[in-house]
Design brief:
Rossmann fold; 434 Repressor (Amino-terminal Domain); DNA-binding; homodimer; about 15% strand; 6-stranded parallel β-sheet; 6-stranded mixed β-sheet
DNA sequence: TTGTAGGCGTTATCAC
DNA sequence: GTGATAACGCCTACAA
């Protein structure tokens, strides 16, 4: 009953196992009628090829592995979900693993996936990732946290942040604080650069070089923090704990979670948002629209990135150059946390 | 280099492939010394057994499938992460799939997992799940949304909610609103029952039968809603849009997301929390501690549930009776959204 | 175009 | 306790 194999199909269809196999694999050299008859029998018998046997012989598992630091992070969970959908569209399934940002664990997971003979790996490297040895032939695409030397896909953090900061500038803000990510994080640095881009550009235009220089010199307008909520909160406290006319009138955070933490800090300090302080985040996680007031943020096109990653792995799309990652444009998701600044009171 | 197989190990160790295999599988009948020598060679050669070949021969894939409705839901993403860890502890990997609460998709995913020869399936059934045919021998454990007829693992929603509502009662609340989940959802009904348990019990004790009866008769203190944020918000609006002395002084929501939506509704109505309204949620997702003020909630022991589910699948633990699911106790996570009620002004 | 047969890397069943 | 050897279920030259 449950033991229906390729030979049963062959026997019942009056053909050889070879023909059945060729039908299974869409080999072109099979008659229309034969193909029809065989597929009929297959359905009739409810035959399903054994993936293990198949994989062993053909070296194709129709499995792709994805390793992320932490599934609890909404950005990554949305990424995984998107990858699952994209993979399913191609008849692939995914093995999910979490590294918890632990390099050793990550290396181990990669080994496991390798020996599982997955057809490809999508990797969000852990913070202290250094390098991996992969059997050549196993495609790997690094996503979000780019690493030189690996095919990469990511949002265009730099331009995304620049866009966001420019939005604040256009509203009239001039003292714009920035909550940066960990300095050893690639995306964090890209985002910081985007901030500096915007500030400097404005400075040049307006002749107010001071702002740009101050920012670059590590002025008190920049606070480094981890990407999480609590870090955002204390960074917010740091940026806001000063006289009103020195305090930023707007803060751009490198992640939505930071931004939400920052909102809490402002709230605790009795600073109303957006009346006395504009706040923007980055990522566009669902959570961003659940805050009070709704967070204005820069959204990464996660689904597109996931689809691209899968396509690259399956050779449906040419892999990006090792040193030229595919970058996806971000867009501003307008919420209620941004408004023109209040004039300083002298 | 990359083609090191069991025969290479055997040759180099001066033993037969059979012995190597036995070492690999911790078969008791192998000398200590031999085992040591072989494991040494294995490490030296960096040999990793081919899971496909292994699975083909032994009918064990060391793979377990998990199907959830939506990975974007923080409860499920934490569940998946916990399952992944638990599985890894047993040398297992997981294939993750999302059904998007779509029964057809779900059925298809189950078929895929079956043909993948996973060693077990952990399933959170979709809302409109009806039944599945599984080749016997494939263990399946239903988690969270219990179904009669399947081995089940879940939090004790009913008692958990009762505990939470009792907390509100102890604070002095008497008009306690309840945001229920979808009426066709099993956990939703369990939670509702827990609410009724608490209300009725108090009514009996205090002789105020009215409360209990009112609640049971579908009084305006109960609002049905989906589990998400927006639904919680409109349910909150519904419950709060009435004269102050008729309005609930506390609201227990069936999910944290609902509770957060409800907080937003209260905020929009100018009702301060917890001064004029206490709010409690259910689930204990990380998000609950990120709100302002921090949400008081009832936490499900997700990790324990995940570990149990894996243990059951792997026969490390006896499966629960088909009609007696394993229930895990919940505990209250105290935040800042609950306080004694203000006295009514007459 | 279709049939035949060998072998993929392990595990399990025998003997020894 | 250990070694030889036959499957496991399928794909793929190669032959017809």
């Amino acid at each position: 009953m449950s033991k229906v194999g390729i030979r049963d199909v062959a026997k019942l269809a009056g053909v050889s196992t070879g023909t059945v196999s060729r039908v299974l694999n869409d080999h072109p050299s099979v008659t229309k009628e034969l193909r029809a008859r065989v597929t009929g029998i297959i359905k009739e018998l409810g035959y399903m090829p054994d993936p293990s046997a198949r994989s062993m012989r053909s070296k194709v598992s129709r499995l792709i592995g994805i390793i992320i630091p932490d599934l609890t992070n909404p950005f990554f969970s949305e990424l995984v979900q998107s990858v699952e959908q994209a993979a399913a569209n191609h008849g692939y399934n995914i093995i999910v693993m979490t590294s918890l940002d632990h390099a050793a664990k990550e290396a181990d997971r990669i080994k496991q996936l390798t020996s599982r003979k997955v057809d490809g790996i999508i990797l969000v490297p852990s913070i202290d990732f250094h390098t991996i040895k992969l059997p050549k032939g196993l495609p790997i695409v690094v996503i979000d946290r780019l690493m030189p030397g690996y095919s990469g896909i990511a949002a265009d953090h730099r331009n995304g942040v620049r866009l966001g900061v420019e939005h604040l500038l256009q509203l009239g803000h001039r003292r714009i604080g920035f909550i940066s990510g960990p300095s050893h994080s690639v995306p964090a640095n890209d985002r910081l650069r985007g901030y500096l881009d915007a500030i400097e550009r404005t400075g040049e235009q307006a002749g107010e070089q001071a702002d740009g220089r101050a920012a670059m010199a590590g002025s008190p307008l920049i606070a480094e923090a981890a990407f999480d909520y609590e870090s955002g909160r204390s960074a917010g406290n740091y940026l806001l704990a000063r006289a009103r006319n020195e305090r930023p009138t707007a803060i751009f955070a490198s992640s939505d979670q930071q931004a939400i933490g920052c909102m809490r800090a402002a709230h605790d300090l009795g600073i109303p948002i957006p009346a006395a302080l504009s706040v923007m985040g980055f990522d566009g996680i669902p959570l961003a629209s659940m805050t009070t007031p709704r967070l204005t943020t820069v959204k990464q096109p996660i689904q597109d990135m996931a689809a691209a990653a899968v396509a690259v792995l399956l050779n449906k799309q040419t892999a990006p150059d090792l040193d030229n990652p595919i970058l996806f444009a971000c867009e501003i998701l307008k919420g209620e946390t941004t408004a023109p600044p209040q004039p300083d009171k002298h």
